[in-house]
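Deviations from the work plan: none for this task. Representative record:
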Amino acid sequence: MSKWLRENLWRHAFATFMCIFSLFPLYLVVLSSFKSSGSLQLDSFVPKELSWDNYKMLFSSPKIPFLSWVKNSLIISSVVAISSVVVGAASAFAFSRLKFKGKKFGIQLLLLVQMFPAVLALSAVYVIMERVYSFAPSIGLGSQAGLILVYLGGSMGVNIWLLKGFVDSIPAELDEAAKIDGASPVQTYWLIFIPLATPVLAVVCLLSFIGTFNEFIVARLFLVEMQGRTVAVGLQQFIGGQYASNWGAFAAGSILASIPIVIIFLSLQKYIVNGLTAGSVKG
Amino acid sequence: MSSIFRGKFATAIKIAILAITTAILSLLAQSAFASGESAIGAFLVFAIVALNFTYFTKFSIPLKFFVPGILFFIAFVIAPIVFTVIMSVFNYQTGNYISKPASIEQVLILGVESDANQTTFDLVAGKDSNGDYAVLVSDIANQRFFISTQDKITDVDASKLIINEYGVATTAPGFTAISDNELAANDAYSKIRYKYQDGYYVKIEGQGVGAVFRQKIAYDAKTDTMKNIITGETYINNGKGNFALEGSPETVLTPGWRAPIWFENYTKLVTDTRFRTPLIKVFIWTVVFSALTVLSTFSFGLLLALALNRKMRGRRIYRSILILPYAMPSIMSILIWGGMFDSEFGAINNILHTHIAWFSSATFARAAVLLVNLWLGFPYFYLICSGSLQAIPSELLEAAAIDGANPRQIFRRITLPLLLQILSPLLIASFAYNFNNFNLIYLLTGGGPRNSLDGEVAGATDILISYTYQIAFGRGMNDFGLASAISVIIFLLVASISFYGLKKSKVMETFG
């Protein structure tokens, strides 16, 4: 056996095996989305038919308001992503750059609370929003506006924490120079900090978008009406609900819904990995 | 440029935004107070004061940056957490969901009985000559007709009435009937108790029909008891949100109200075997599940990182394929795997040529959960490990090689210990994350298999958080109090795990 084989064979063998493992479910979904039988069965590895029925169904069947699900998901996720970054960036800036009483306590509280998984407080959120519904139905339980408020508020802890990490990594010399030149903190924020932080804010914004897009359980509890659902809730209901497991349409729908997310994710890969390890793999 | 942020224009915008926000919040606060939600109302007033105070005074500049974030944080993060803790000391479940005044009202509404013959009458709803809500009742059996309001009953002679072919009076002098649609639109008519005889009253039960009832239960505010006026039985406030029959604590009037029971939800979890046994079972599986997940995803990730940790052909392709499971929206992936494990039509049984009912057997379901989580999780550790491997100084490895260590020794003595040291906070974070990996369990197995015929709430793959969800929102009994108590316990557990992790990563020391 040559040296090359001895050193590289296992590497290729293992990597190939893991690639197959990774790809298998994805390949199966693509295959199923083009099958008219509507099951997630594997008849053969080679596609036997190329039917667009499932895709057509998503856009034409009145029972499946796929387009409004996508629209809802896009609107909810965008509003949450943008607002949470706008609100969160200001707080993160203050936490990172300004001096004030109670800062240490604030950061510790933030750190503690962002560990509290939102699902744990779900019954409380439910009861609170049920009460909000009793006097303001348009922002209470069952409304998209209410859902946005819950997401926005719930993301505060994590987002401020994440943004603070990014802000800390921006050199402080520039805004210190601005301070010496007589700029007020508000001017420093708008004229120095925001232009510097724009790429970072965009990344956090996209991450927040993905996170909201992926959220399931609160959306499931909140959005009861068929038309008002998000893609995640809609597609789940579709295979667990009254449609008796329509896997073909589910496969087509989840492919369409996943493509943008996968693209965003892959283009942000570098930041995501850095963000995930920030603070632990220093130097 | 800086003029945008100073001067009249900026001030005008600031005032406009604040005015609109204040107006909206005031409106909301007003309606919150009006419908009795004083806690929410008080928070809204606090928000209005905080916003205006911060932006119209020079009290604190940092506050100007915080206030919106803090308000959201308090409303949707702190408040639910505090509320969870409060709910955990309440009897807050199906049957004990409403406030005490509402419960008393309901008990009194339900505390009626029909007369011995369960008499029903044909009637017409409308208004009498005084404009009061009234019914024109036709007691066909006794050929008696009368107009009844809340406090008086007036017999009408049949000769003055228009009676239809069924013998039912439709109009009477001075009586204005309303249409069925009007009746359906105004529930005031059907709420009124129209006077009848011997303490009984007539109540509208549907279009054109009424029935005879009398009040059976009465509330005594002084002693805080309910009395059955007819039998003389007394129901005492049992301190847990119900009125219970004197001498028979199991017989309670429904609905009850949410009442503070202090630590009973917690003690129940420790002392009552009906709750303790499933909780322990679920807790053990949660720990096993999280630990095995971290172990498997880390091992596979590390092995892959090692395999691809050198310049070789196809490395970029491998990398972009291996990252795909991580890039896919996890909800979709989990649901897809759920379909693949289907016993009849699933691809897994297809390939293995088996007929395993994966989600009906505890062992197979747990194996499936672990396999799917491996698929979802290994790319994360692959990415992290590849990054960290680069961070290990090559001098160390070279020095070891010069000292005659073989690759296996180098890995076991140098690479692995260093990696574990670098990555231990992430391993702990991953453990804490999977400890609460609700979506995976809920969407893949729903926590099952569980024997729901025996009233079992905890399934074989249920982890603490999905178990909590079942208790709070599952079918049948919904117990928010108990669910909140478990939530508080989970939080304490997760917080201590994470705190330990943070201490290790020394993040805490960089504060301030």
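The CA atoms of residues 198 and 204 of chain A lie 10 Å apart.
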